[in-house]
Structures
1.
Amino acid sequence: MGVSREELTDPCIDQHDETGGHAMEPARLGVGLTTATARTILGSGPLPGRAEQVAQQLGEAIRLGLILDGERLPPEAQLSEQLGIATVTLREALAVLREQGLIVTRRGRAGGTFVRSPQVELPDSPPVRLLDFSTHEIRELGDHRAAISGMAAQLAAQRALPDEIANLYRQVERLRAATTVSHRRRADTQFTIEVAAAAQSSRLAREELALRAEVGDLLWLERSDEDHAASVRSRAELVEAIGRSDARRSRVLAEQLVAADTRRLLATRLELDDHDFEQVRQP
Amino acid sequence: MKGRSPTRREVLKQITGQFEQIFTSLEPLAVAFTDLASSNDKSRPERLQSLRDVIHDVLQIHDGLVAGAGAVAAPDTMPDRHWLEWWWTRSSGAPEALRVNLDPAAPDFFDYTSADWYLTPMRTSARHVAGPYVDYACTNEYALTVAVPVTIDERFAGVAAADVLVSSLERQLLPALRTLSRPVVLLNSGGRVIASSSPEFASGMRVSLPKSQTRRPIDWHLLPASGIG
């Protein structure tokens, strides 16, 4: 297909063209699957089993607040049917979640399996989960979020209709009115997803939701009311740019929102010294 | 022998005709919901079952085009303040009931009363096709919602509605659009692209439209791509 043979063959491998008899059809003597290819296929780790996948997804739903703290999970038979998995797979997944402390099972008449949301940490306790992230990972996360949110804002400016812009203003007002950390976090998550919806992109909306599931709780750690007022202001400014159909400005503003989050996360992470780490890991 | 190629007006009529058929299918659904809303504790279970049967009929009649259908109640029309009965088709197998949180205090409360497909039929007492929009609250698909208002004793009682995925619609639509001599773009009344046979335009894009005077339930436009700025 217009690609020369030299480009196709690996120079590191000895060629036996004359004796091999494959003059018409050059053999591709590769290394099989390169490490880079295998990593791309597998993501960052080995392919998790079905139960681990289910556990991870349920865990995300709990972290995101889609399944509420204290909520009783439906009976195993019903839940496994709803998720389209075998009951034994569900049981394995629940065991993983139980180990992570995301669910508890109580016996007796008022018993069952209950969700224990990790967000009920005391506001002044050290942000334990942030210790799982290196500053490098926080930077990577910021890049990923900036790509998604920036593009969503740009497309929203190009595509949103007046109703959708009015809705974005309503979301900003909801955020302004929110007083508790968990309400603010939820209002902000909603705002972010509505921007992606205004961009007419289900994929970007899904991606925003997944990113929030991963780190949403960290983004709203220890915020003062002044911080909150500032984030409401900057989101209102973003909606205004979207309303003006100013795609470039919208993108820049959305990227700046993410950059501010990333800076704050990095600062908080750097403040956590080894001492905190020891205390958390060996109580 | 090949007949003359159709005109844009004819193709648009064919497209809106498909939606008129969905409107027609929603009538028995609206009636079944009216019956349920006027039921008492004793007759309610039976009438709920009848409503489900009608919903499943709608899904079956428009298989491949309608992805979900059901009824939602205006607040306090049913014993529960917020109420809906909604089913969607899975790629394989029987329809599945949609589960959403209808507790206003919950963070994931599904507030259908603020959705365009609920508000517009309520305000105008007329049929409406909402979208396309990202249905992130339910299926997370890019969809249109076809809705008819339900009135009981001259009071708005809710809507009977059906979801059409833009991808399914396009699959049915594109052959018809291609019969036209020039690439065309199908737009909703707000200037949003629903489907297009031109690579310059894709669903979800926004173009400026001259202000439309009409207020028809399906106020769509099929325009030559070359004439759109």
2.
Amino acid sequence: MSTRAWKALLDAASAPYRRAGRFAWHFARGKLRHDPVFRHLIEEGLIRPEARVLDIGCGQGLLASLLTSAAAMNDRGQWPPGWAPAPRARELTGIELMPRDVARAQAALGDRATFVCADMRHAEFPACDVVVILDVLHYIDIPAQNDVLARVRRALAPGGKLLLRVGDASARGGFLTSQWVDSLVVFVRGHRAVPQFGRPLAHWVAQLRDLGLEVDSKPMSRGTPFANVLLLAQAPVGTGSP
Amino acid sequence: MKPLPITAYTATSALGAGCAATLQALRDDRSGLGSQPFLDATDLNTWLGPVDAVDEVRLPPQLEAFDCRNNRLAWLGLNQDGFAQAVAEARERWGAHRVAVLLGTSTSGLLQTELAYRERGADGSLPAWFHYEQTQNTGSLSAFVALALGLHGPAWVVSTACSSSAKVFGSAARLIDAGLIDAAVVGGVDSLCLTTLYGFNSLELLARDICRPFDLHRHGLSIGEAAAFALLERNGAPPQGHLLGMGETNDGHHMSTPHPQGVGAIEAMHAALADAGLAPQDIDYINLHGTATATNDTAEGAAVMTVFGQHTPCSSTKGATGHTLGAAGGVEAVISLLALKHGFMPGGLNRHTPDPTLPLNYLDTTQRTAPSRVLSNSFGFGGSNACLVLGSARP
């Protein structure tokens, strides 16, 4: 994957956040550059063109900005020929509880995506082809996690995908580091002090399989001290939810 | 200051949702207050000004996290009189980041916390549906309104008790004057909650019957709730009225009692007149703070007589709306704008026996005399005083 093209895509995806303030712009640049998950999604073509995408816990809408910028780059004929097809989203919905993040997302992206300021435990999920949940579910207790996953399963079209990144509670060192850093970040960003609900990787996989999803997992913390895993869960083609 | 155009405004209170209902009640000298208790506060023998329509309001799914009585009331208010549409046009005109949201409240969504505490777990945990930042946090109101209107300019809440939503007019005028913004949504939203009701009850400031501003036998407040908004713009849209001047002071006297001679109130009125470049005789009508507490009306009446003498027509509209606390300055600015537009001076209801120590030209009923300049007082706990001078569509 061409590093120059990737850098151009990151710059394009960060640029709209200048409108949302200095913090939002620096955060966008840092997060898109240092979190391996974004490049992985693009490289592997995990979000197919024309997908309806739902990002649960979307923060300031970085994924929406990345996808919007990818489509624009493709339209300008600058999408590198060797890459997986550009992930143009047909519909983009982001759900986020924190008003400041939603305001930044709205300021950066305007009406190119729909941002919903709501609690994922109560928000309605639109019908979609791809659901992305990155480092979010551990904020709610395990019965609530299972309820969100079941509702995601019902929202997914046949063949639809859930891209779920979680911490692996059975990988002690990295998981504790994740938890400690997360507590600090959550505190600094003004959330109430919240307990965190981790589970071992095997439990996550079993939970998704119980919902009738096919599951594949990849470590997704390259270059970071964390124990994060990206789970790719796919609904069977041609059948509804069980 | 240069007259600042007010290009849209709306109020929702116990008098009804929107300007038409408010205007009709004022013209009919009809009060919105009643003696029905709020929720289960049946031990409080008092009168209230609730907005009954709030109970049916549901926020759109995109704003679900903000759900609480205060933000529902804000949503109800924003959707009256084409206000949200007028703001959308201002956003097109100036750009979303050039339009501010500056609002007043005293208790924001405090009722949500009160309801959450009733469901707290044995370990003290609050229920999962409770979101402090999005409901009770004072800033939740401006965050909610900014997101609802798609505005990305400065957004903040002023919470200085009962002067809050008058002071934001001054904040907006200063930001526009400094060139930081071109337009601002100002006003206030305050909703009924148990802390407010029991708090004022403990201060022995709640009236047992309907509140009687400037009556000899006045015995305190009737609490109301309201959402009031105004859109201030540098220029560009047809004005519906003008902000002519603004004065703000602090008594520096007492936490909950005004200065007995109203020195801070006098200075606020002088400052507002000076800001507008007007003399006292240029004011045709004064919308008094007039809470119906013994101390407020005595101090305010003395202050008004010091600045204006005894002849300027005046009244308190709190006998109609109740005291809407953090929304009162906004509500009374809208009432003043309605009086300027429709050519009347609202009556001060429920005064049976004039107080002989306050020989003001107090209007007991609505007069069909058209004012062209109105002064509106808003005085809060902590001695916080704000005074607005408002003018008609033709400055």
3.
Amino acid sequence: MEPEYTAQQIEGTDNGWMLTESETGKKHIVFCNANANAAEDAVALIKNQTDGDLE
Amino acid sequence: MRIDSAGIVEIAEGSVTLNGNTINAIQVTIADDAVAALTFNNRSGGLLWVLCSGQTTYPQVTNFGGCVPVDFGASPTYPTPIFAGTSFAMNNNGALTGTTGTNGFVTVGTAGTAGTLYVENRTGSSKQFQITLL
């Protein structure tokens, strides 16, 4: 099964990731916390995006 | 570039140059206590507009938003912001690390590597930012 996103670290950054949605090709730019800076962490930030408890 | 059936033009990467003047805009997701180090085509200064959660039902303009002319070139500086939300700050004391600014704030840094603009999220959760440099 194809993964939902492909992740590629952005050249020249320590914590920047370019995520591409496999189905649509839509791209997302994500900057991770230094303590959670793997491809799956970047994907989790997009998939679990709630933008906190906004009002 | 993609033009969808609603007539929306989407440019996934790059910038727009109008009569030689390059305009940059980007949307990024920044984790809590993390920093985005951003570079822009043909630009290391201009009028910066930082919007937090602008594409949600509850844009965070008056707390985490900011509008300020910036110079993040070789001699970085900025004047008093035109608008700064209650939890928006500027910094010119070196590259931001993710925990440089005040906890609870969005901090924009102009110093560090020349040509790089730093946006630090310490709002307490991951957020999407719409960043425009005119």
4.
Amino acid sequence: LQDLQDLEQGSLTKKLKPLILILLVPGLLLLLWWADPGTTGFYPRCPFLVVTGLKCPGCGSLRGIHHLLHLNLGMVAANNFLLLLALPYLAVAVAIEWPKGNRPWQLKWRKKLMGVKAIWTILAIVILYWVMRNVFGF
Amino acid sequence: MEQTLDGNRPPKTWLVESILVTILCCLPFGIAGIVNAAKVESRFYSGDIDGAQRASSEAGKWTKIGFWLGVAGIVLYFLFFVIIGVAGFAGLGAGLFD
């Protein structure tokens, strides 16, 4: 792990990082919009699913993003309900955290929505979803 | 102690990034990030600023490892197809001149 961190500090990787992100993220989104992972065998499969035969909480998120990009929310929910649940929460969280400074509304809402209780709740939801989707097969 | 904490934000918890890593890529690293995010919050509001800082860098570490493993996985995956494609093409070319 130390090696990985040392690697991160290298100047070459520092220059490469933004480039990788700028090329990779829109490229992947375009690919996901264009080719449905549900009908094309081109995408990688979840390693956890391949090894254990069980779904992880992230399984179906690629298919989910495909349907999200086509604004088909029902299909997002069908493929990965957690993704649909997480997106509005993450948007609100970013809106609270993004503005610099410590305005009273920021402190109040980040404590409510991103405080200890909220974080343990999130973890519980992730684990519950993990168990439930394997028990009931969704 | 509460007074000095009032009006201040805890160090970065990496919560949003951890959740994204959990759902989109690397579950174990994402969960390690989420657990450390909780530690940042609880330590900060109980007055343990140093501990919160440590948990924050732990959360950042796991989240970043998960994220870059994901990126590396994607790049290697596509590279694999490119190599297969090039090898196939070269094989076809070689076959023509047999």
